[in-house]
Design goal:
The chain is of the alpha+beta class. 56% of the residues lie in helices and 24% in strands.
Length: 174
């Protein structure tokens, strides 16, 4: 009887060890896929011309990219855990805070046109601010992706001015 129970216990133990090994291999494979995914995200984040930042629900920096660093002169390490509003020039703080609150409360992506005074002067951006959600589906932060459209806006304004002058010249000539 004791021999049979010992064998059963050994078989169960062997089965359990095998399942632990399989599960450990799964966990390691998942961890590797996660690291690879994070690396791809980092490469994309740091090699785009867009200005990108991620903040938590309180407005504290989670991550900024190279574009943000170039525009605002604030590194990713300096931004982490700091209020994004304290890192911005004074003028847009209240506007950005209100926009962030709107994105969080409406729980949808919203596009804004923004003028930003940065190290390179005044630039115009189109910014898409998107809520981030936690595992429970509750808004937990925002990612903002901004593209510099200054040159396009200047060209649009120049075109509008030329059209206005042409129109005025036609009226004068008539």
């Amino acid at each position: 009887y004791l021999y049979r129970k010992t064998r059963q216990l050994e078989a169960l133990n062997h089965d359990l060890e095998q399942r632990v090994e399989e599960r450990t291999a799964e966990v390691q494979a998942n961890a590797l896929r996660l690291r690879e995914s994070e690396e791809r995200f980092k490469v994309i984040l740091q090699n785009t011309s867009a200005v990108i930042y991620l903040i938590d629900a309180r407005g504290n920096g989670l991550q900024v990219n190279r574009g943000f660093e170039q525009v605002f002169g604030v590194t990713d390490d300096e931004a982490r855990g700091q209020s994004i509003y304290a890192l911005l020039p004074p003028a847009p703080r209240a506007v950005w805070r209100a926009r962030h609150q709107r994105v969080m409360s409406e729980r949808v992506s919203i596009e804004f046109e923004e003028e930003i005074v940065s190290l390179g002067g005044v630039r115009t951006y189109t910014s898409i601010k998107t809520p981030l959600f936690d595992a429970a589906g509750k808004p937990s932060g925002i990612v903002s992706i901004s593209t510099d459209i200054t040159e396009r806006k200047l060209a649009e304004n120049e075109r509008a001015e030329l059209l206005r002058r042409e129109h005025d010249a036609r009226l004068t000539a008539a």
